[in-house]
Amino acid sequence: MAELPPVPGQEPSRLGPFGALLARRKAARQQVAVPAAVPEAPEGPPPPAPPVVEFRNVTKRFGDFTAIQNVTFTVENRPDKGEFVAILGPSGCGKSTILRLIAGLRPQYPATEGEVLVGGLPVHGPGADRGFVFQDYTSFPHRSVLENVAFGLECQGMASAPRQELAREWIGRVGLDVARDQHKYPHQLSGGMRQRVAIARTLIMKPRIILMDEPFGALDPTTRLRMQDLLVHLWREAEATVFFITHSIEEAVYLGDRVYLMSPSPGTILAHEEVPPPDFPAREMQRHADFIEVVANLRDRIEVMEESTRAGT
Known about the structure:
11 helices, six-stranded mixed beta sheet, alpha/beta, 2 domains
């Protein structure tokens, strides 16, 4: 086999004709023009986040009884802030049903009709992104305060030392005395202390949505005001969205960014009102003339809506 001429600019191959052929192929590959990189199109603004919670014509029936009917609302995503939504309505109008549908808790879940979306996705049961504080005291009676607050972290498999350290931090953040209270059991606590434990046990999990079903309803007036101030402080730190059920117009106006007004059963949302944010402690703010006027106007509106509902108009 005749030797191929050497590749220009290279020494003759010492591997004979085969080496020369490889050299020629290598040179040919190096001479192939590489297409210029196409500049990437500039990125536009990111798509908006889906609403935190959305109800689309939601109805829930239990046999022949309709708890809520055609409930529709949207709570938008508010990054780095969250929103506080208070829900007002007469007893039995379905307020708790709305919260339990968001939480994915049976028997209220699933809806009979309509869609319940959290973060743009249908609810398929409970999730760590949603925390629930109930009206009744729900601490485990055989567990200490420390063990109750750390319960969710224990279920997630966190090691004992870090979860107890974090639980002690939250015991202090809800206003309990860590050294004195961490080893107490629920029967040794007042109602206000038990609700502080329940709030700590919920918020330690860092939920995106906090659901609260009349958590202060059984507290005395002074403790209730203190708990309202504590909740506002913790909510602003958590930057979560809160749904808060109450029968107190004053409490709803103080805590809420907006207030949903529900009709008697079968419950539906008749209106929603935006209210001023809680810029002062509850005891002080509820004495202001502007606050008293907002409460009075809201009470008048509720009475008008209830009369219209009873009259069927």
